[in-house]
Every structure is written in structure tokens, then in C-alpha cells.
Write the C-alpha cells for this entry.
Amino acid sequence: MHRVFKLQDLDCANCAAKMEHSINKIEGVSSARMNFMTQKLTIDADDERFDEIMDQVVIACKKVEPDMIILR
Amino acid sequence: MNTKQKRTLVRIVVAIVLFVGVYATTELLPLNTLVSEPNTIYLEFVLFLIPYILAGYDVLWRAVRNIGHGQVFDENFLMSIATVGAFALVLFPDTDPHFAEGAAVMLFYQVGELFQDYAVDRSRKSIAEMMDIAPDYANIMKDGALVKVDPYDVAVGDEIVVQPGERIPLDGIVLEGTSQLDTAALTGESVPRHVDSGSEVISGCVNLTGVLTINVTKPFGESTVSRILELVENASEKKARTENFITRFARYYTPVVVGVALLLALVPPLLFAQSWSDWVQRGLIFLVVSCPCALVISVPLSFFGGIGGASRLGILVKGSNYLETLAHSETVVFDKTGTLTDGTFNVVAVHPEADVDPDWLLSVAAHAEAYSNHPIALSIKEAYSGTIDQKRIQQVEETGGHGVRALLDERVVLVGNDKLMSEGGISYHDCDLTGTILHVSLDGVYSGHIVIADVVKEDAAAAIADLHAAGVKKTVMLTGDRQEVAAAVAHKLGIDEFRAQLLPQDKVEEVEKLLSTTSEKGKLAFVGDGINDAPVLTRADIGIAMGAMGSDAAIEAADIVLMDDKPSNIAKAIRIARKTMSIVHQNIVFALVIKFAVLILAAVGLANMWMAVFADVGVAILAILNAMRCMNVKQFRD
């Protein structure tokens, strides 16, 4: 499944790169792009496990940038 | 500035005032009159702590929180260590205290962060404004009155009304009314376009003069406006090689710099009995310089700006990677028809034999071709000003690749090429003009010929010259046309090479051959009209489709889409790409040189905290300002 999420309070470009890196490592994610300029997260991931994967994505992002919110 | 940024600004200003106050006090007032000598240093410590905490409490808090998540290389954490470290130097009895520096580093860091935030926000907004072509509403006629509805809710086949001054919300065909359309937001073209009933109009244009009633042909989601917005928005997803390089670089840069900082602070004092304060300070300077922000922000910002700016001129770039490739274009290959030429055939000359009236010649040819739909026949009929009386024509025989034989007023007419003439045993003579030559004979007697050619676009020659001026080494034209026609067009336009008489499938092969001749770094761009050349567009390093307003197939197949059908936009696109890349490179080189210079100076003990702050936030700010230049495409306008 391919989905795009808006991001709120993504303030740091380097963090975006770090988060993108760690999201791509999550099992079931085939590709993830975090766009600092458009403040968007694009994820391609397994259909059945999508919600579960998204929970992991949120946890991974919280570690790097706790202030950022993924608008789901 | 948003409220969050305003609050931060106020906080920083107050902190700066306090800082200056404290600094002045410690410099001017002999503190030892207040407290006894060994304790003055602690008083100073406390005084500087006030502006420091005020300016940086959020950084300190985030540092604590993120270190809990194991984020050792978090910039908040590193900045906190560096500044806390500067304060902590008070513990070493042999040092000058560095309170002022510690507080100032935090202050500058915050100023820099705020500015970065603001600048990125602003460029985001101005690009969004540039792309402000989305219509807010559509007018629908309901019970005799106009009702404003969301463009999303308008269905195909609905009739919408667009008043002067309004933006056309959906693609469609004009049913009623005449007007001028401002297409600048889509094509960059400043001359308004005339439309009347029957004209196709696309969403995003502004209706200037008259009321238009439009029959909607596409739902909003598929209309030109939606497609363009989606395309430009998603363009920065496709990252350029430089961008990926910088992200990878950043991943190693911070850990390495922090590692070296640790070594610097510990090894010399422990192993070689050097002064702790001196070497710890060198380590702290490393920490301040350890954030790669300048690079990580400015590179995507440059691409984003370049793509946004280009879209302003009607040049849609589908990804940062394509902008990067375009900047390296060395060979530009054109499909002739529809790209360099209008793609429509026109009668360019009528050469009757002596004693033959040119209008009569044209009339004979137009009658003979009356039933034909061949583009050449159409062009003759268009050039003929009179009306065609079909009763005069009988027994029409069309032979593909030869021409037409018919009876006109009971007389035998042959209209066709030299093969048809030879077959009929008619002596004809050639023409020195290039194009398709249509010979005409009446009852076996040669009457003359008509020359038909595809007309070269007005700005084609200038476009080729401009490409060469922009640094393109080779221009090539591919065409299915005859050798002589191709040679004439190529010569007229100043194109370096041409390949004629190609079948559509040959074009891919030719492009492959040309690809093998480009240099290692040089790229090949193919320009087509997007019709029938999708395979070639995909095969080339960069596929450019032009005249793509409303053509879905072209937008799909190409990497770069020119909304207009002007070939001169290709050179503009290349120049924008080159400018963007040169700004990207300037920023990378500038940031790396300054950072490494300060790191080296710090390692040998020649740098201070102030230099470190400059290498961190100063460089980031300058790089961002430089990157923002990418958005400015005024210089490329006509």
C-alpha cells in the first residue's frame, strides 16, 4: 500500500533524513521517503500489516524528533 | 512568522539583552568589590547562566529527552554538551572562564535555528504561492442562477460558467462566448490566448475579457491543474544523486566529528599530560561544528526552488534527479515534426507553368484531392480560397505513395509525386525548393507543381543557437522526412546533425547509437511532442515532451514537460538546471571548506568558539540564502 502522510512540526532536515533511514529499516516497509520541504512522509508497505507498521513508524520517529506529529 | 517563531524571537531578544547586560557588568564593574576574589568567578558563572538558560532551556530539555532515546548524535544533545562544557571549564583552576562564550554559542545557535526555520517556511510558502493555480470554486447554472460549487463536485458533461477575472476550474470545451485567456501561470507565456466556441480550454488559466460557458470534459482530479500540482509536489520525492550523497555523508560526518572530539579531549591530557582545559575546549569546538545542517537543508531547498521556479515558466520537472541530469546535457536530440516545426503541412509555393494561372492550378489540385483526408490534401484544400464543387469530379483513384488520378470536368487530372508523373508518361521538372512536391497535369500536359512543407517554428533557430550558447555540444534532428527536406531544415536552424527517412521504430535505435557516443558524464536529452515517441522519451537520459498542455500521454512518458510548444524553453530549462546545480555545488564546497577549516584550526588550537558558531549556524544561514536564489527565474523570462 502506498500512502502519504502530512507531518506537523518537522523542524530539522537532518532529523528527517535520520527518520527516513530508520523507517526504511522497519520490516514490511518497501520504501519510505520523508520530504522535509513539503513536510510529507510517503510510505510503501505491506497491506495487511500496514497499521501495525505505522505504529512502529511513529515509535521510530518519536525517538528522533519527539515533537513531530504524523497526521494519520 | 508564525506564533511559535514569534515567541522564540521574543525569548531570544530578551536573552540577548540580558547577555549584553551581564557582559557589560562583568567587564565594567569590578566584581571583586562585591564578593571576595576567589568567588568572583562563581558570581560570573551564575550571572551568565541566566541568559544561557533563558535562550536554551528547550535545547537542553530536548537533549535530555533524546538522550533517553539513545540519540547520541542529536544536534540538541551535542550543542548542550558543547555549551555546558564551556561553563564546566570553570572546574579547571588554570583556565580563563568561558561563560560568555558558552552563553553566546547557545544564543547564536538559537538565532540560527530560528532563521533557518523562518527561511525554509518562507521558501515553502513562496513556492506554494507560485503554484497557486488551484481554483477555489466553479460556477454552475442551477434554476437560472449561478451557484458556486467545489470543483471536486463538478461532473464530466456539466456546464460551467467562467466570468472575466476568474480562473477556469476544470478542463473543457467552450460552448459559448469569446475571450482572452491568461495562461501565464501554466506556460509562462505572457501573451493572452484567444478562445471562442469550440476551443479546448484547460484549468488554471485566467479568463480575462468575456464570459465563457464551458462543457466540462475531465473531472477535477484528472484536470490539468490537479496533474501539475501533483507533479510538482511529488518532484522533490525523486532525489538527486547529490542529495543522496549528502544524506549519506551526513550519516557519517556527525559520528566521526564527535569521535574525534572525544579523542581530542581525552587523549592528550591523559597520555601526554597536556592541559585539560585546553584540549577539552578543542573537543567542544568540534561538537559545535558537528551538525551537517547547512548541507542537509540547503541541497533539497535548492532543488525545490529550482523546480518551483521552472514550473513558473511552464517547465515541469518531474524530479530533482531529472534537474540534475538535465544540467549535464551534452547532446540534445529533436524529433522534427511538432517540435522544431509546427507539425502541420502548409502550401509554401505554387509554381505554375508559363500561361497557367496559379489560382487555377491550386483549384485543380484541390478538386482532385477533394475526397482525400491525407494531411497533404488537407493543406491544399486549406490553401484553396474558393469552394470545391464535388459534381465536377468523377472516378477518383488514390494510389498510396503516388497521388490521385481523377476526372475533372471530363478531363484527366493527375496530382501526385514524380512517380505518378513518370507512370503517366508526363514530362515534369523538379523544384529547387525543399518540401513535398505535388505535380499537376491535365490531359497529359504538365501544368506545374505545388510545394508543401511543414513550417519551421518561429523561435526554432533561436532556440538551437541558445542551446549551443548554453553549452550543449551537439544538436541532432531525427525525422521520417526525405533527406533533402531534413537537410534544408537542419541547415536553416543550425542543427549539427540529422538523420532522415527514419521509421518510428528507427528512432529508438538512433538514440541508442547517439547515447553510445556521448561522453561519460554528458547526458542525452530527447525532445518530442509526446505523441508516438514515448519509447524514445523513455530511452533517452532525459525525455522532454513539449506542447503538453492537456496531453496526458506526454506528461506520463516524459521526465520534463514543457507546457508551451516553444523550443526556446529547452535552453531555459537547461540554464535553470545548471544554475541550480551550481548553487548546490557552491553550498557543498563552501560548507565543507569552512567546517573542515575550523575543525583543523580547532585541532591545532587556533580556533575559538566564535569561529565554531560561524561554521555551524553562519554557514547554514548563508547556504540557505544562497539556495533561495534558485527560486528566482526572472532572468530567464523573455
